[in-house]
Give the backbone structure.
Amino acid sequence: MKHIGVIPGDGIGPEVTAEVEALLDLFRAGGLPITWTVLPYSADYYLAHGRALPDDGLASLAAYDALFVGAFGDPRVPDMAHARAILLGARRGFDLYVNERPVRLLHDGLTPLKGRGRADVDFVIFRENTEGAYVGLGGRFRRGSPDELAVQEAIATRRGVERILRHAFGRAAASPRKTLHMVDKHNALEHVGGLWLEAFRQVGEEFPAVAANQVFVDTFCHEVVRDPGRFDVVVTSNLFGDLISDLGAALAGGLGIAPSANVNPETGKGLFEPVHGSAIDLAGKGTANPVAALLSAGMMLDFLGFGEAARGVERAVEAAVAAGETTRDLGGALGTSGAGDAVRKRLEGGAPWA
């Protein structure tokens, strides 16, 4: 039995997470050995209790085989303290060093690129998730004065860089195209970039069947728009991964259909979330797109060992999108629950999932 902790969070998070719970209900009724607990951690919880998590902190989350998060972000918590404590806390506390962002076009009509289709937009980005510019090293000095100074440090460790590279090389080796691009900027960021480049070349020697390519981040942004079909597996640092994964999402149809996973393959810990944010202005209107959440749930099921169920989610989403049974951002006329129903009805009576 696999136990999942579900954190709906803020804004539209509870709405899209409700569609994930209904999806999990369907699979459990079909024999999948899963159970889940809905956890109250959100801006409301933070404001009521003065903390993002109970006194035992991350230990309260460690008991679950996976975590699913709807969204975080609320103007009542302007510094996003609760989101940092939960999301960044889990990524670092559970050492979830792999951030996986698939970029896959579900229907030809969703890409903004003229003359491009599903065969052209189908790659995956692996972002190093625990180091880089987001570790919080630095500070501001002489605040408010004309001489104010701000310093933000990016760090890279040999261990951290090598393990994300090795994970990406492994995925590329298992891919039919066996192609990997490492995105960096070592010509300007000599020290951190130099470590990435050296490690990339050394780890690449372990995977002679993979066509390994280095590309500067600005060149990648240019080329992925001009010819996305040249990319298969992409690996990069925390900051660059944050940027180019949203660019990839735009090529595939928008953040409303962009799933993500934060995992540690060695420990079996994982946190899964749509990347669209809390969209406070849409909360309660029933118009939020649940596809990113449903696809993220599919990634979670795959990670937990239920590969056939995960493939079923992907096929059902693709079929619903192809039929135009979507929310308005994808050209349909359905609300959040209607779009979720459109996916689930394609799974009812399907393959045995257990």
Remarks:
- The longest strand covers residues 2-9.
- The chain has a mean pLDDT of 96.
- The longest helix spans residues 13-29.
